[in-house]
Amino acid sequence: MAASRTDHTKSSAALSPWEISTIELFTRTVNLIGLPRSVGEIYGLLFCASTPQTFDMLSERLGISRGSVSQGLKFLRQLGAVKVQYVAGSRKDHYVPELSIKALVQGFVRDQFTPHLESGAERLDAIEGLIESESDPALRAHATQRINTLRTWQGRVQKLMPIMMAALGGINFLNQSSESGDAVI
């Protein structure tokens, strides 16, 4: 996964086929939401790992630079997607993934989505100011209609977010286990 991310020879030799496929699943997911590939790789490896992983283990097993690991871990820790776990006898930080979908979504919404929503309102105000200075009345009317559509969308999203967050916090099946002990999602 180093230079050519599909070459799983040297640094990825320790990764099993299921680990590689799972990591690729996470890299595709983070790509959909515009995050760096390394964020998905790091979370994916931690998700697969049966033991806490050190910074060096992540870099070596994934074949990615120390800088990418550093930035990825910093981002994932800010989101609450990765935690540091104490390992007796070791002076290094060891990382484990957050496995609660509720915590992952709440962290993402809090740190990524909400700030964009809030700054979007400021941008709409600025655009509206630009529209007011438009000299062509037909173009000004069209632009005003479009900005009102954007404000409607924004209002709907703002109303939907608390409902989604309440659903994640209030619906027990997201965190319940089935009779067999497997998580129900």
What does this protein look like?
There is one protein chain. This protein is mainly alpha-helical. The protein folds into 2 domains: about 15-95, Arc Repressor Mutant, subunit A, CATH 1.10.10; about 100-175. It has helices at about 15-30, 35-50, 55-60, 65-80, 100-130, 135-170, and strands at about 55, 80-85, 95. The protein has a 3-stranded antiparallel beta sheet with strand order 1-3-2. A hairpin with an 8-residue loop joins β2 and β3 (about 95). α2 crosses α4 (about 65-80), α3 (about 55-60) packs across α4 and α5 packs antiparallel against α6. It starts with 16 loop residues before the first helix and ends in a 15-residue tail after the last helix. Residues about 1-15 and about 170-185 have low confidence and may be disordered.
Give keywords.
mainly alpha; Arc Repressor Mutant, subunit A; 2 domains; three-stranded antiparallel β-sheet; disordered N terminus; disordered C terminus
Structure in a nutshell:
The chain is mostly helical. The protein has helices spanning 17-32, 37-48, 55-62, 66-79, 101-132, 137-170; strands at 53-54, 82-85, 94-97. It has a three-stranded antiparallel β-sheet with strand order 1-3-2.
